[in-house]
Each structure stands twice: as structure tokens, then as C-alpha cells.
Design a protein that fits this description.
Largest sheet: 13 strands, antiparallel
Number of helices: 19
Radius of gyration: 27 Å
CATH class of the largest domain: Mainly Alpha
Shape: globular
CATH topology of the largest domain: Glycosyltransferase
Length: about 750
């Protein structure tokens, strides 16, 4: 009888657990702590925000191991930036009180839509939930017999108290200011300025560095509720944003509203399978892609740091904060599929930024403070042509083309510079490549950044891809001469290809390869005298627009595959302390391959182009397992606000946009038993795996809408038509599938029948 009861209990428990799992929604799988401890450089942060919203916060600490919180955040002004304004709740003696209090903390909970923490030094409980431009803090103080304080800080600006209202501003640079309006539900007993560790209730306004005001709440109040709005236009607009979005102080109701929005957003990709960790990695990655760009439109107006003015948005929201060097590869293409209206608004925003600057130059790293011109190349052109060739309309293609062309031909190509074109750019125009310095030669060209260096191979390879993108835009616009010129120039990667070594090799202004040269270690920190952040092994494959030609340069398909395998098998060549001192970005290694940096993201898919897609299937699954995990170190390098996460999202679904600008996707290895994709055009595309098991990574056969698909790619048009793709999976590879000469993905141009 006891055995029967035990079996019945286990049976009922299994039913309960199955029911609980069945009720889990997409946002329940998101783990904002994934990657919060970095391998080398910058970690991810547990960001609390709504999709693409202006208001974002995360705990003020270096990473998850931080022992203290620096107050409570009120707004993160840029990806990986620090907080504008700061809130410090407090009970105790005000004498000598710091304007930003450092707290010991415990019991922290972070979800995309909600934050909770105990400030255990003070025994203060914190709950928080955001809206798009406003938020609520609910604070519980331990001792109702003591006065409770709220300390507000502006690092560089102005703060003012008026009854239960607090307003202020903080300067981010010479012309960008963020504004705050906050109010408490409970009426404070007094308010004033905190100065020299003392509360001066006779003063209600203060300005300067660490401008600080305090609200005091009389004894008997243990719970204080604060709501606030933020703006880049004015304090008055911050108050309007607050009152438009929030009608009360109910933090849990606001959190539930945010939860519903996140579920609606993440639910555009419904995945099913037996691996719960894979779902967490997937949905966390998708959540990361919605951190940027952020919408700055406020009641139909927006502040632009690109000209320092407030503009009418004309019904098209204005977005900024995008490091397009990182995001053009996969984040923008992901939005094209699932958020086409938003992507059109973002591209329109790019064009507006270019128009608002002194020169009509497309931005490269647009932020809330303007274009920081970081990294190399001008890859917004890739996002523009990719969207257009995939059917998106509604942005000014002619103006976008001119802004892209100007940025590539009028602005210097020297990395991290916004200067006009100089002697190196004229050399590039005349000779087709960016020249390198000889070993030991000192830099004399003023356009070159003293730390970032020339990066001649990276600049050349990145720019010829941009020129290919310009050629595609020129073709659409009927600019025949530009089309032919830029298409021809897009082949100039050949000028740096060393036929003897089969690597892209820096070349001096006389046309000689730099010697001696080591493809692993030459080039200084980050190999910036030749490449950028990565060494020659990674940049060896950086010809996204013409992989078929790269295969021929390598000696054919067999040699190409052999060299790919050699990269994954070759040791980094030094002890890790020495290697990573030189290559802080080149982590996530499998041999010389780096999973942690964006120029490597497309490399695992290149086996398809040589007729061996089974190797891509194996490699992608192994890389996901090795480097993307549901834990605190589960991201191999700088995530860059969606750049790397989009790779994980695409790869988990089973395909990837190797060449933004070509409307097609290369097939990898689907991770889930079923993925139902709710496309941005309202149609549904289903990807189903038969003979599914988490370990069955190899494709045996594929059908698309009932027809056999023996190609390792499919078109964007086929995806957006909706339908069903069925994969038959297996434990061992089918080396014959999609291995023929007619089965490989297109390069350089699409087959006309697929356009």
C-alpha cells in the first residue's frame, strides 16, 4: 500500500511539474544575469527596461561580483553607460551623509520588467518597475519610528524640490541634457538641499557637480512610493511623460504590464524542445536584441544631439544608440523579419541624423550624445540595402545613399575619426587598399588615432564590403556609373590577399607586403597596426559579399575547408596571460577562432559555401554549447547590446544572414523541436524537426512547404511567404545533403529567380 501511495505521489508530482512548465511564458525563460561576469572585458548587465524604450536601468556596480550598489539608478543614458541621476533611500543621522550612498545588498531579483533588492545595511526593501519613459520605486523602511529620507543626486546639473515634487537636469556633454521629474505618493514633512553633509531646508534648489536634494518623511511612514519621468527635452516634458504613462504608484501592476509586453514581443518566436537551458539562452539573447536602438520620441517630438535641436518626428519615431559595426551583421536583419516597421523608423532616424550634422555623412556609432565615430568602416549602408532588398520601404533611399556615399568617400576611413578625407583616403581611392606602416615606422598622418592605429587590412576589407553595398543601392536607384565603379572596387580585397600564405596581409604604400609578419601576433595590441581587435586568422574570412571568390583564392573548396579546419585546430601559440594581454577581444577561442567578437560570427557558416554543410551543423551546435550558457559567465565576450545575441537567436532557429544585402539565409542546425515564427508581415513560418533530440544536430533532409529542399540556403522571400520547413535530424551527418555545386548559397549577387 505504501509503495502504491508513493507511486501515486510521484505521478501527481510529475503532472504538477509538467503543468508548471507548460504555463511558462517566453519572458519566464529570460535570465538577465547570463554573462554578468565577463571573461575578460565588459560583462552583460541585468538591464530592466521595455523593448527599445528610452528608459533603461541596471544596478550600479562593475559586474555581478560587485560587493556594493552605488545608490539606485534612475536612467542609463547609453548602452554600457552609467546612470543619469541617482536615488539613495536612507534612515539615520544625516551628518556627513554622502550624496550617493553605497549599500551592501542581498536577495536581488532582476527580470526584464521588474527589479527587487534588499539594501541590507539599511534594511530597506526596494521594488522597481519601468515604463517607456517613466518608472516606479516602492521603498520599505525598517523602522517607522525614524525619519525616512530620499536623497536625489545629479552628477552635473541642477536639482530642485517643490512639495512632494523633485525636478532636475543632468548635462551629458556640451549640448545633451537629460531631465527628471519625480513625485512621491506620500507627502514629505520637509525638503531641502544636501550640502557639506548637512540638510539645509531653507534652500530648495542647487546646481553644479553632485547637486543633491533630500525629501524627509515624518515618523510613522514605513513605505514610500516614488514615480518619475525622464526626458531629453525639458522638465515639463518629463512630467508629461510621467503623467501620460502612469496614473498611480502601483509597482506590481506596472511590472505585470511590462511582463505582458515582453511576452508579446518575445512570443513572436515560439520555440519548443526538451532543453530548458537552450530556451533560456535563446530568449535571453532575443531580449538583449531589444535593448537598442532606443526610441527618443516624446509626444511626437525628439531631441537630436546631432544638431542640438528639438524636432517634430512627423509620426515616425526617432531612434538612436546603435553601434552599427556590431549590429549590422545580425541585429538589424533580425528586426527586418520581426519588427519591419521599427526597422524602417530606425533607418529613417539614421538618415535624419546625417541630415542634421554639418556634413551629410551617415553615422557609425550614433548615441544619445551624437555620433562617436568609433571602430572602422561605415556599415549603416549594409543595414540600408539589406532592408531594401528584403522588401522594406518607407525611408528615403536616395538621401540614404548619398549620406552613405559621402561617409565613405568624403570622411576619412581612418578608424575612430570624424575628420575629412586625407592622404590615406586618396591613396585608397587611387590604389584600392589602405596602406600599412612599415615595421618600426612612426605615424605622421593626422587623421589616424594614436591608440587605434591605421588598421589597414580591417579598413580595406570593411570598406570594400561597404562599396559592394553602395553598388547594390546604386543599382536600385539607376545610377549605372556608380554601380559599376563601386562593384569593381568591391573586389579590391584581392589586392591584400597573399597567394603564398593565403591570408590577407598588410601592404605598404609601395605595394610590398609587410615583412616579417606573424598572422597571430604581429600588429601590436589588438593587431591594430594591421587588423582590429582580432588577428589575421579571423580577418582571413572577412569577405562577406563574395565568399565564392574567396574560395577560389584559397585554392578551391577542399583547400577552403582544410583552412577553416586548420584555424579551429591551431593553438593560440602562447600562454593565456600573454595572449589575452595583446588580444582582450579575441576570447571565446576554439583554436585561433574567436566566438567573442563580431567579425567571426559568420565564419562557422562558411562550410556551406564549399559544399560541406554538415561541418557547419557540427560547428554551430558545438559553439552554442561551449560558449553560450545559462550561467553568469555564459557569454564569451563583449555582447555589445544585441550584436552577439542576434547570432545566438538566428543560430538557435537554424539559419543566419551571412551577407546582409543579399536577401537570403544560410542554414545551420535548428536547436528546437519546433519554432513558430510570427513574421512582421502577419504571416507564420514554422520550422519543425522530426527525429528530434537535443543531441541530434545533423540534417538528414529538408522539405519546404512539402517540396524537397536540397540547398543549404533559402531566400528571404520564401521565409516571408510563410509556410513550413521540416528538418529530419540525425545523430550522424548526411554528408550528401546540399553538397552539390548547385546547392551552395549565392555570393556577390542573388539568382535572378529568387529576387
Amino acid at each position: 500500500m505504501m509503495r502504491f501511495k508513493l507511486l501515486l505521489l510521484l505521478f501527481l508530482l510529475n503532472i504538477f511539474l509538467f503543468s508548471a512548465l507548460a504555463q511558462q511564458q517566453p519572458v519566464d525563460y529570460v535570465n538577465p544575469y547570463m554573462g554578468n561576469i565577463s571573461h575578460l572585458l565588459v560583462p552583460t548587465y541585468p538591464t530592466i527596461h521595455l523593448p527599445n524604450s528610452m528608459l533603461r536601468v541596471y544596478p550600479e556596480r562593475d559586474d555581478f561580483t560587485g560587493n556594493q550598489l552605488n545608490g539606485l539608478p534612475m536612467m542609463v543614458t547609453s548602452h554600457r553607460g552609467r546612470s543619469a541621476f541617482n536615488l539613495s533611500p536612507y534612515q539615520g543621522d544625516l551628518t556627513g551623509l554622502k550624496k550617493v550612498i553605497q549599500y551592501g545588498y542581498d536577495n536581488e531579483v532582476a527580470k526584464p520588467y521588474y527589479y527587487e533588492v534588499d539594501l541590507d545595511d539599511q534594511d530597506i526593501g526596494v521594488r522597481y518597475a519601468p515604463s517607456h519613459q517613466s518608472a516606479i520605486y516602492a521603498l520599505t523602511f525598517p523602522d517607522a519610528a525614524k525619519t525616512a529620507y530620499l536623497v536625489f543626486n545629479s552628477q552635473n546639473g541642477q536639482m530642485k524640490v517643490d512639495g512632494r515634487g523633485v525636478s532636475g537636469c543632468q548635462s551629458l556633454d556640451n549640448h545633451t541634457v537629460v531631465y527628471l521629474y519625480a513625485e512621491t505618493e506620500e507627502i514629505p514633512s520637509s525638503a531641502g538641499v544636501l550640502s557639506d553633509g548637512k540638510l539645509d531646508v531653507s534652500r530648495k534648489e542647487v546646481s553644479g557637480e553632485d547637486a543633491c536634494v533630500v525629501l524627509s518623511f515624518m515618523k510613522g511612514i514605513s513605505d514610500v512610493h516614488l514615480r518619475y519621468g525622464i526626458s531629453f527635452i525639458s522638465v515639463a516634458q518629463a512630467k508629461k511623460n510621467l503623467l501620460r504613462e502612469l496614473s498611480d504608484y502601483n509597482v506590481l501592476a506596472l511590472a505585470n504590464k511590462g511582463r505582458d509586453l515582453w511576452n508579446k514581443t518575445l512570443g513572436k518566436m515560439e520555440v519548443r524542445g526538451d532543453d530548458a537551458n537552450a530556451k533560456t539562452v535563446f530568449y535571453t539573447s532575443v531580449y538583449r536584441t531589444y535593448e537598442r536602438m532606443i526610441c527618443l520620441s516624446e509626444d511626437g517630438h525628439y531631441f537630436s544631439a546631432f544638431d542640438g535641436k528639438v524636432h517634430d518626428d512627423g509620426g515616425i519615431p526617432f531612434y538612436t544608440d546603435d553601434w552599427v559595426w556590431d549590429t549590422y551583421r545580425a541585429t538589424h536583419p533580425l528586426r527586418v523579419i520581426f519588427e519591419p516597421e521599427m526597422e524602417v523608423a530606425m533607418l529613417t532616424s539614421y538618415i535624419r541624423m546625417a541630415e542634421q550634422m554639418d556634413q551629410l555623412w551617415m553615422p557609425t556609432f550614433p548615441e544619445v550624445t551624437g555620433d562617436s565615430r568609433r571602430m572602422n568602416s561605415n556599415h549603416a549602408v549594409a543595414a540600408l540595402i539589406d532592408a531594401y532588398n528584403k522588401g522594406l520601404r518607407g525611408f528615403d533611399l536616395e538621401k540614404g545613399y548619398q549620406a552613405c556615399k559621402n561617409a565613405i568617400t568624403e570622411k576619412t576611413l581612418a578608424p575612430w575619426s570624424g575628420k575629412k578625407a586625407g592622404v590615406l583616403d586618396q591613396f585608397f581611392k587611387d590604389h584600392g587598399y589602405f596602406p600599412a606602416l612599415a615595421n618600426g615606422e612612426k605615424e605622421t598622418v593626422p587623421e589616424v588615432h594614436s591608440w587605434e592605429r591605421r588598421q589597414p587590412v580591417a579598413v580595406t576589407l570593411g570598406t570594400v564590403y561597404d562599396e559592394w553595398c553602395l553598388a547594390q543601392l546604386a543599382k536600385v536607384l539607376g545610377k549605372k556609373d556608380d554601380y559599376q565603379d563601386f562593384l569593381k572596387r568591391s573586389l579590391n580585397y584581392r589586392l591584400l590577399f597573399n597567394k603564398e600564405t593565403k591570408f590577407f596581409h598588410p601592404k605598404d604604400s609601395l605595394g610590398h607586403f609587410i615583412e616579417p609578419f606573424d598572422y597571430t601576433f604581429s600588429g601590436g595590441i589588438g593587431a591594430r597596426d594591421a587588423y582590429d581587435e582580432n588577428n589575421g586568422w579571423v580577418y582571413r574570412w572577412d569577405v562577406q559579399h563574395n565568399i565564392a571568390d574567396l574560395i577560389q583564392l584559397m585554392g578551391g573548396k577542399d583547400d577552403f575547408v582544410a583552412e577553416l579546419e586548420r584555424m579551429f585546430s591551431t593553438s593560440i601559440g602562447r600562454g593565456k596571460p600573454d595572449f589575452y594581454h595583446q588580444f582582450g577581444d579575441l576570447s571565446g577561442n576554439v583554436g585561433e577562432f574567436s566566438m567573442a567578437n563580431e567579425p567571426a560570427l559568420h565564419i562557422p557558416y562558411l562550410y556551406n559555401y564549399a559544399g560541406q554543410p554538415w561541418r557547419t551543423q557540427k560547428r554551430i551546435r558545438n559553439l552554442l554549447k561551449e560558449w553560450f550558457r545559462n550561467d553568469l559567465m555564459g557569454v564569451p565576450g563583449d555582447e555589445d547590446g544585441g550584436g552577439m545575441s542576434a547570432f545566438v537567436a538566428f543560430s538557435s532557429l537554424g539559419f543566419y544572414p551571412v551577407t546582409p544585402g543579399l536577401p537570403m539565409y544560410v542554414i545551420g542546425s535548428p536547436v528546437f523541436k519546433n519554432a513558430t515564427l510570427h513574421l512582421g508581415n502577419g504571416k507564420i513560418f514554422i520550422m519543425e524537426c522530426q527525429n528530434y533530440a537535443p543531441e541530434n544536430k545533423f540534417i538528414q533532409s529538408v522539405t519546404l512547404n512539402g517540396k524537397v529542399l536540397n540547398k543549404s540556403w533559402f531566400s528571404h522571400e520564401q521565409l516571408m511567404e510563410g509556410g513550413k520547413m521540416i528538418f529530419v535530424m540525425g545523430r550522424k551527418p548526411n554528408k550528401q545533403w546540399a553538397s552539390g555545386a548547385d546547392d551552395i548559397p549565392p555570393s556577390f549577387e542573388m539568382p535572378s529567380s529568387k529576387l
